[in-house]
Amino acid sequence: MILHMIRAVLFTLLSMTAVLSQAAAERDSKDSVEDIVNNQRLSRANLKFLTDELAIGTTEVRVNIVNHLEKLGLGMDTPTTDKFPIIRDQTIIRALVTGGFAKDDAATSRAATILTERCKPSDLAAFSGVYAASLQQSKGQYLYIAAKAKILEARPSVEKMALQPKWRDEPERRAAIRIAQAALGNTQVEDEFINAVIQAEKSAPPAPPNRFYNVGAAKDGTELAKRLEPLGLIGTRRSLLLVCSYLRSPLKSYVPDVSEKSVRYAALEALLYNFPDERVLDNPRDLPGWSTAEQFCIKNLGAVFDGPTPDIPPHQAYPTRLLPPPMRK
Asked: How buried is 233 (Cβ within 10 angstroms: 0-12 exposed, 13-18 middle, 19+ buried)?
């Protein structure tokens, strides 16, 4: 295990050389890239160098550094076989949270995606002061991170932002602000998301016909699957319990004449966002796997399921073409 970790760090350091060289070329710096790599001064010199460059580098340099910080953070994790590697190291998270957001560019968007998808809420919460102070200045890039980390002290700032035309009237910004409101304790807004899920199930239209089999009386769960995603982003116990209930949904989402996929997969994706290191929530391959996913929900969220786990749900593409009719003799 130690040898494996050493090899992983060395590989990461070597892969970072190009990024560091590019950054060093853009400024008149006395720092030696070769010295940083050769002496493996990772935790102090190297990370400080990268963080400094995040503050002044071009968008291209910043995106490359953010991507390498992701690789480095994942490489530092040593998960057991039932876990995914995630970013847990606080120095890496700090570099992404601060330097990653130094400019309003593609690197900021990339850093936000990494933090929300590769980190647990508890690890993100260590930097609550950064999120709260930034949201006081209406820096919306931190909305999804504060929502996932459940930074309750940021709620007054979020509620104030929600009243501003900039955040109220533009659809994408409005979606982000409403998710943050719900995640940080605004139960009225959370109710709207929950009711949208319930209504999508109740009003599901007939499943679209296809050329391959008779769908009969099946209903179309495409809209329901879409409505489950925001509940995952909200991530309160209340929202996630409702998500858990759809682990047994009979509905499917459809791409007409292309594919169909059980809504149960959408429920898993919403849960995995909140527990990104849990392999049991990543597309179980068999019935025991689905049962284990349900047991995880029972243990960690207090979910309740009646009876045995339903059979493996469908997730399949339709044939690309119809077989030709048989030749007549």
From this structure: buried
| Cα separation, 155 vs 181, whole angstroms | 7
Bridge partners (DSSP) listed for residue 316? 260
- Supply the pTM of this predicted model: 0.84
Segment 213-222 shows an average pLDDT of 94
Q: What is the dihedral of CA 127, 128, 131, 134, to 10 degrees?
A: -100
Residues 305, 268 contacting (CB under 8 angstroms): no
Tokens of 132: 């709260």
What is the spatial distance between Cα 123 and Cα 298, in angstroms, rounded to a whole number?
A: 23
14 pLDDT exceeds 50?
A: no
Contact 251, 221 (CB under 8 A): yes
Task: Specify which residues 260 forms β-bridges with.
Answer: 254, 316
Q: What is the pLDDT of residue 326?
A: 56
Residues 289-308 have a mean pLDDT of 97
Q: Give the model's confidence band at 46: pLDDT under 50 very low, under 70 low, under 90 confident, else very high.
A: confident
Model confidence at 16, pLDDT cuts 50, 70, 90, reads low
Q: Given strand 252-255, what is the order of strands in its sheet? A: 252-255, 259-262, 315-317
The pLDDT, as a whole number, for residue 47 is: 78
- In angstroms, rounded to a whole number, what is the distance separating the alpha carbons of residues 49 and 298? 45
Q: Where are the alpha helices (DSSP H) in 41-168?
A: 47-56, 59-76, 90-98, 106-118, 121-124, 128-136, 143-149, 155-162, 165-168
